[in-house]
Design goal:
Blueprint: H1 10-29, E1 36-40, E2 46-48, H2 50-61, H3 79-94, H4 96-106, H5 112-125, H6 134-151
Antiparallel strand pairs: 1-2
Helix pairs in contact: 1-6, 3-4, 3-6, 4-6, 5-6
Length: 152
């Protein structure tokens, strides 16, 4: 039997893409929770965590230092970011698989193919029977965005 193909409608794809980009921006605006990584630099000092380095670089681009020498940044977590966190947390509790797909797409910036491979590799590693196709992951992403928007 031939494998069925699935196409996400263009208008739905545009909504999904819009929100993936918006949530990614919100996620990247958050003040990082870690300053140092577990690595050490060439001098033996703890190396900066990549998120912290991006945050510092972004602060310099957004206005540099204020009069007291402190970096200028937006408030730690604006309302939209808190709403995003709550929606993602609720999705994680209600449907972990959809959360994993949305998280990997938004935060880790993985493609559908990379996410499909990761899900299959994990299923094999954990000796689980399920296997995913790109079509399955697209449907999971569609459903995840729909639920997150309702809870956002």
């Amino acid at each position: 039997m031939a494998e069925q193909t699935f196409q996400v409608p263009d208008d739905v794809r545009q909504v999904i893409n819009y929100w993936v980009v918006e949530w990614r921006k919100m996620w990247q605006q958050e003040t990082p929770s870690r300053i140092h990584s577990r690595e050490v630099d060439q001098g033996g000092a703890p190396d900066w965590h990549p998120e912290f380095r991006r945050w510092i670089d972004r602060g310099a681009e957004e206005g540099g230092l204020n009069q007291s020498g402190r970096r200028l940044h937006a408030p730690r977590n604006p309302d939209q970011r808190l709403r995003t966190t709550r929606a993602f947390r609720k999705l994680r509790n209600k449907n972990p698989r959809e959360f994993e797909v949305l998280y990997r797409t938004v935060v880790k910036q993985h493609s559908i193919q990379e996410t499909t491979n990761w899900l299959n590799d994990r299923a094999i590693r954990l000796d689980k029977p399920e296997r995913y196709r790109d079509m399955d992951v697209q449907i999971l992403l569609w459903s995840a965005v729909d639920k997150a928007l309702r809870w956002w």
